[in-house]
Design a protein that fits this description.
Blueprint lengths: L5 H11 L3 E5 L3 H14 L3 E6 H6 L4 H14 L4 E8 L2 H6 L7 E4 L6 H17 L3 E6 L22 H11 L3 E4 L16 H10 L4 E3 L7 H10 L1 E6 L1 H17 L6 H24 L2
Parallel strand pairs: 1-2, 1-8, 2-3, 3-4, 4-5, 5-6, 6-7, 7-8
């Protein structure tokens, strides 16, 4: 089927009060596994390419983006393409022509006023070019001399009133918030603030996004969606499955030299992970 639009998938998920799984792509095997796992779960899915993943490929967007678009178009479930954690305006400008219907513009490293200004400019450009724009807000600094914290700094929590002002000032279409998760967690021990998620969902008029979801236990992912989270971003869980499968295969076959053998094992392991987490997120 043709590429889906992330905005449509988000609207449908929000209306049904279910989560929309969004998985990060690094290799072609990631993209294939994400599509296959989503098909097995019967869920829509978002294929996400981060600025870092594109940098890994020498900064060349089109080869991996076109491969992802072809995989998405061949899938039996709706699949959209999303540019994740983009800090570079030039890369953002290249996204629509490469098949992306959404992007996350990350100005979280800037002081708050500069973050608002840059994100508002990015949102205005994105909307002129048919791109749905996500942004991120952790904790605004300045209170009692406290520094700003990114959405995934330990102890960061997003204030609902600040989040509502940020969305109004930037006109973004979705907001990633700090509620207790963290990027690159290899154990599922994150403790989410479900009451805060509910307060944010009530205060913020756009879909909420949970980054760093690999570290969140299944039951908390389900509870987070019930409390108001919509888009659930997952990356490290796939890398853990990939790496474990490769290690296991090479340990069992120390003379192996054909990468197709161990990459098949890696892809299959990621497919199982995608299916399981997609069912949890979409409640299926």
């Amino acid at each position: 089927m043709p590429l889906a639009a992330t905005s449509d998938l988000l609207a449908s998920a929000a209306a049904d009060r279910r989560g929309l799984p969004a998985f990060n792509v690094i290799t072609l095997e990631h993209a294939e596994a994400i599509a296959a796992g989503a098909e097995a779960a019967g869920t829509p899915v978002v294929l996400q390419l981060s600025q870092n993943a594109i940098a890994y490929r020498g900064g060349r967007l089109l080869p991996i983006a076109r491969a992802c678009a072809e995989i998405a178009a061949a899938a039996r479930v709706p699949v959209s393409l999303h540019l994740d954690h983009c800090e570079d305006f030039d890369l953002l400008r290249a996204a629509p022509a490469a098949g992306f219907s959404s992007a996350m513009f990350d100005a979280s490293a800037l002081p708050h006023d500069e973050n608002v200004k840059a994100t508002a400019e990015a949102a205005a450009w994105a909307h002129r070019h048919g791109l749905h724009l996500e942004a991120e807000l952790g904790r605004v600094g300045g209170k009692d001399g406290e520094p700003p914290l990114s959405a995934h700094a330990p102890g960061a929590r997003t204030d609902p009133a600040e989040a509502a002002r940020y969305v109004a000032d930037t006109a973004v279409d979705a907001l990633a918030v700090a509620v207790g998760s963290s990027h690159a967690m290899t154990s599922r021990t994150a403790a989410l603030d479900l009451d805060l998620i509910g307060d944010l969902a009530a205060a913020v008029p756009v879909p909420l996004v949970l980054h760093g979801s690999s570290g969140v236990p299944d039951e908390l992912l389900t509870a987070a969606v019930a409390a108001g989270m919509v888009k659930i971003n997952i990356g490290t869980a796939l890398n853990l499955a990939y790496t474990a499968a490769v290690r296991e295969h090479l340990a069992a076959h120390p003379a192996a030299t054909d990468p197709r053998k161990y990459l098949t094992a890696a892809r299959d392991a990621m497919t199982r992970t995608v299916e399981q987490l997609s069912r949890v997120v979409a409640d299926r």
